[in-house]
Amino acid sequence: MQIPSGDIKTVAIVGCGVAGLTAARFLQNAGLTCEIFEKSQKLGGVWAAGYHAFGLQVPRSFYEFPDYPMPENYPNLPSGEQVWAYLEDYAHHFQIFDKIRFNCIVKQLEPIPENRWILHYANQDTGETIQKEFDFVVVSTGLYSNPYIPPIPNREVFSGKVLHSSGYQSPDLLKDRKVVVVGFGKSALDIATDAVQWATDVTLVFRNAYWPVPLRVLGLIDFRVIFLNRLIGGFLPLYQRPYKWEKNFHKYFSGLIWGFWRFVERLLQLQYSLKESNSTPSHPAESGVFAHGFIPRNETYKLMRQGAIQVQRTTIEQFTPSGLDLANGVHLESDVVIFGTGWQPNYSFLPAAFQSTVDEDGAYLYRHMIHPDLPGLAFIGWASTFSNSLTTHLEVIWLIHLLKGKIQLPEPEVMWKEISQMKHWKRSFIPPVAGRGSLLQTHMWHYHDELLGDLSINPYRKSNPIAEWLQDYRPADYRDLVTEMASLTWESQVKP
Questions:
Q1: What gap in Å lies between CA 132 and CA 440, rounded to an integer?
Q2: What CA–CA distance (Å, rounded) separates 382 from 7?
Q3: Measured between alpha carbons, how far is 496 from 42 in angstroms, rounded to an integer?
């Protein structure tokens, strides 16, 4: 399928987080006129309004832009405020600010002939509802648009305060109070850890535990060395389109692979004392890292083990006037209940053709970017990996090749067949979690290789074979490529 690249001159970008900023920079470098529509008063997406004491959970070298490193004076794990300031500097440096329409909520994307769009948006400053035509639309709203709080009976009778993790902006809310935190993701554990300093009583309620990913395994070995290189990639559940060596490795050395992951589980059990804190996951580590794998604070599991964070591994049956009734028969007295139960994407403004194909476990797209029936629309930043900023850059480079006619899309039926295979592949090993359609996590280098392979660009970015197999991949490895793409005259051919 060929997009009429010569006719694409104007592009709307919905959302101004990492993906939206990246898309705007490269689209304007490619000679396209773009506008960013951001619903809030600030750029940065989730980094503009995170919970109290939130921050980056991966080392900064894994999240920085490939050709725009984070400041050297930033700590290894920058705070949310530092990441937001970094994004604002990026927008200033690459002259993106004048392309942003703040306080503009996109209400509807209306398809019109020739794969073009009418974008309906509300300007919150003026109260106007405005329509504007575009040749192409990039959706970069990401996976974290709408806070999710599960529907629990009798919430209205509870005399205390209920909020989502995103609403936890100040520890004053917790001082001298009994606090319940619900969930077992990064935000839930962060808030429970923070609450210990202020609250009289902290309880963590969760149904399922997830495998922690340490910054350093046993405090010694960088987790990236173990989990994020090509060699250990062969121990992962096979990618949708694995390399031949990986298929043979799984065929002839399945016992070794099984033993490796049991060894990893034992290491994590020892490092975090998971049994003592009643937080041993029920699913194997090799699938768990694709679900809610996260990097916890060092002190979190210690506080759980010591009882400073009390653990209730069960579900909530109902609110009561004074707290919560749990399925295990325990009644929790509480003044504040904070739900660290995640987010849901916002599909409300997207066309019916898109919404009708969304499954319970998320949206499945060709190359995690293209809906086969809506080729004039691309989703950037919806693929979840351990280096989302790098993934976003490679997606944008792929997209501009498409818009400039350097590559073509397959026919819709071919893309739908591949999407169907993707569903089967992911559902065969990833636990049934929300957003499974977007999850790639430690398979990120497979995905990156695939995107560059589509463009006939060499995916191997290391200086020698030993580094290629044993070192992790990070944004700096793609710096030369991204710099070249940013300065490329797109009428010329791209060098591999």
A1: 35
A2: 26
A3: 38
Place of tokens 């504007």: 132
pLDDT at 213 (0 to 100): 85
178 sits in which H/E element: strand 178-182
Mind listing the pLDDT tens digit for each residue in 382-440? 999 989 999 999 999 999 999 999 999 999 999 999 999 999 999 999 988 888 999 99
**Do the Cβ atoms of 58 and 83 come closer than 8 Å?**
no
User: Is residue 385 within 8 Å of 440, Cβ to Cβ?
Assistant: yes
Query: How many residues comprise the chain?
Result: 496
Q: What is the pLDDT of residue 84?
A: 95
Proportion of the chain in helix, strand, coil states, percent, rounded to 5: 35, 20, 45
The C-alpha atoms of residue 76 and residue 274 are separated, in whole angstroms, by 26
User: pTM score, two decimals?
Assistant: 0.93
At residue 136, φ and ψ (nearest 5 deg) are -155, 155
Q: Is 60 exposed, middle or buried (0-12, 13-18, 19+ CB in 10 A)?
A: buried
77: tokens are: 């794990």
**N-to-C CA span, the chain:** 23
pLDDT tens, 271-299? 999 999 999 998 899 988 776 667 888 89
CA distance 448 to 21: 20
